[in-house]
Amino acid sequence: MANPFELFVKEMQDFLQPDKVYIMDGSEEEAKELAQQAQKETLDGRTVLTKLNEREYPNSYFHRSNPNDVARTEHLTFVCAPTKEEAGPNNNWIPPDEAKAKMNAFMKGCMKGRTMYVIPFVMGGVKSKYAKNCVEVTDSVYVALSMRIMSKAGKQAVERIGNSSDFFRGIHSVGDINPERRFIMHFPQENLVMSFGSGYGGNALLGKKCYSLRIASYLGRQEGWLAEHMIIIGVQSPDGKITYFLAAFPSACGKTNLALLQPVLPGYKVFTLGDDIAWLNIAEDGQLYAINPEAGFFGVAPGTSLKTNPVMIETLKNNNFFPTLFTNTAIDNSNNSPWWEGLSDKPSDLTDWQGQKYDEKSGKGAAHPNSRFTVSIYNCPSLSPEYDNPNGVPISGIIFGGRRAGTIPLVYEAKNWDAGVFAASIIGSETTAAAGGTQGIVRRDPMAMLPFCGYNMGDYFKHWLDMGKNLKKQPKIFMVNWFRKDENGKFMWPGFRDNSRIIKWMIDRIENKANAVETAVGLSPEKGAIDVSGLEISEETVDKLLNVNKEDWKKETVMIEEFYAKFGDKIPPQLKNHLAVLKKAVS
Ligand code: GTP
Ligand code: SPV
Ligand code: MN
Fold it and tell me: Contact 120/134 with Cβ under 8 angstroms?
């Protein structure tokens, strides 16, 4: 008798009708073979992978996408919960039956002439009770190779699945990469995702946002845990103690950079556990523990340099048996290496991300603003020894943030858990190149989860409040904004490695070593509490960075009210009360 995994493979073979079926085993030889094959294969006229300079970037390959397929497409992403109300105003919705019929019409027989790659994978450590088993089928060798980097894939996953039928199912085909025939449909009741017409990261690597966030958040609500768009770090202070933090910022707003932070402050060190997604559980001791369901980084290339993120540069130049992929960067033809804006001075002979000779006069970037690298977490020199701990790590602080030129202070602390949930629920952030659509528009992005929460966000806020009630020890909640600008449009805070100065204040607060002053929004660092030694920044600028301007906040509350109104009675009364208090404080 075939087991449920084998039956699923057979069912997919009959449905998608590929010429060949390949079940991934996760071995080193397999990675080499797939990379070889991808160098011979073309997908709509583009070679799938090309080898990069082995000396500069060992075991690394370049991938170029169709220009219509370079970011997540939120307007084509649906959560097909049983009712529209359950999916909430934060999700696109059509009835599950209708969605299935639509996707079946696209997908039936769509792999004729192609290979179906079967990727069995585990999200989380294979020994962790918090981990989940998954299977994705895809006709993209790029997706297959990427998922091998991003998760624990292959034999170990087949073994963990065993004879169980409890695994997430993902069906993916690039189709003809036509935006008119592109949909990412989630069926949370069946732990199923169907994705057609895109080969891009979050649309196609189904372990990423589709499963780890949309499906998992839906499951987490039923099972009493949280799936979050968060990094996990351990920060060692000069006394040797390690404090674990989570941090949630919207897409392309600084998670990966903070996850691999090399502090400027002497005696501090950051240990990396995750750069994008965290699953949070309450353990028997009543504390909040986090695991990273992923095993790699799918990070934004532009802006990454030896100066801003030296640990990532080292990670990219490390070599292990997972190949490293670069997608939609430019190519420096002098040495066949990937290049992007911010990496170094502009080389003279560049091929742009679309494969054309780079024309300086075009005024456009040589790399796509959402160009990315896919690299194993095991390449990372700052990887925490606790990364593979099946229990995860105990969390003392949660940081939320966004990208805002004005209004939002560099840092403040919420007075308690509920106030923190409120502060996170009202985050606004300027849109970035990580998703299609206009950039730089302020939209509400609660908990950095707007595009990823797999159910009604009103219910999600309630779930956050309930989690707090069930915690014996509640982590402190902090809000940050690295992106505040001055009158000339320049960032006032140096950011990147200097963000360690803000983390230091948070650790001091957690250990009751620093005082705070009350503002209309929460608790702000006392004068002189942020260590700016060695920085050329005036006291006046620090004051401006921390300032809570009532006029600005009055405007902010209008936007918050508009956002809350969409959710009607689903917004928990506690949060409405907090909003009323805030309105009064800034009136
Ligand atoms: P996703 O992978 O899309 O979820 O993004 P992310 O949140 O991991 O963002 P990432 O760390 O990759 O940073 C995105 C962009 O913001 C990059 O271009 C960075 O160079 C820039 N950035 C990150 N941290 C800072 C900071 O502290 N200050 C400034 N000014 N820019 C930053
Ligand atoms: C994001 O957009 O938040 C990412 C990249 O981390 S993606 O995998 O496309 O979601
Ligand atoms: Mn992300």
Answer: yes
- 476 and 365 within one domain: no
The best mutation among 205, 233, 257 to test binding of ligand 1, ranked by most ligand atoms within 8 Å of the C-beta, falls on 257
pLDDT in tens, 479-508: 999 999 999 999 999 999 999 999 999 999
pLDDT of residue 440: 95
pLDDT tens column, 415-434:
999 999 999 999 999 999 99
Q: What is the extent of the structural domain holding 356?
A: 296-379
pLDDT for 330 = 98
Q: What pTM value is reported for the model?
A: 0.98
Ligand 2 pocket (Cβ < 6 Å) reads 72, 201-202, 208-209, 251, 276, 298, 434
Strands 278-282 and 288-291: antiparallel
- Residue by residue, what is the 3-state secondary structure of 443-472? EECHHHCCCCCCCCHHHHHHHHHHHHHHCC
Mean pLDDT of 233-260: 98
CA distance 486 to 223: 45
What's the pLDDT score for residue 319? 84
Protein residue closest via CA to atom 5 of ligand 2: 202
Q: 138: Cβ–Cβ under 8 A, 6 or more apart, which residues?
A: 116, 117, 119, 144, 147, 172, 173, 174, 204
- β pairing state of 192-196 and 183-187: antiparallel
Reference 412, options 514, 488, 524, 256; nearest CA is 524
Residue 301 and residue 285 share a domain? no
> Stretch 507-517: mean pLDDT, rounded?
97
User: Mind listing the pLDDT tens digit for each residue in 29-62?
Assistant: 999 999 999 999 999 889 999 999 999 999 999 9
Same domain, 529 and 398: yes
Q: How do the residues of the chain divide into helix, strand and coil, expressed in percent and rounded to 5?
A: 30, 25, 45
Section 140-145 average pLDDT: 98
- Do 410 and 545 form a contact (C-beta atoms < 8 A)? yes
For a ligand 2 pocket test, name from 276, 292, 375 the mutation site with the most ligand atoms within 8 angstroms of its C-beta.
Answer: 276
For position 311, which CATH number holds?
2.170.8.10
The DSSP secondary-structure symbol of 208 reads I
Q: Output the pLDDT for position 576.
A: 98
Ligand 1 contacts CB of residue 491 (under 6 A)? yes
Question: Which pairing describes strands 115-123 and 152-153: parallel, antiparallel, or unpaired?
Answer: antiparallel
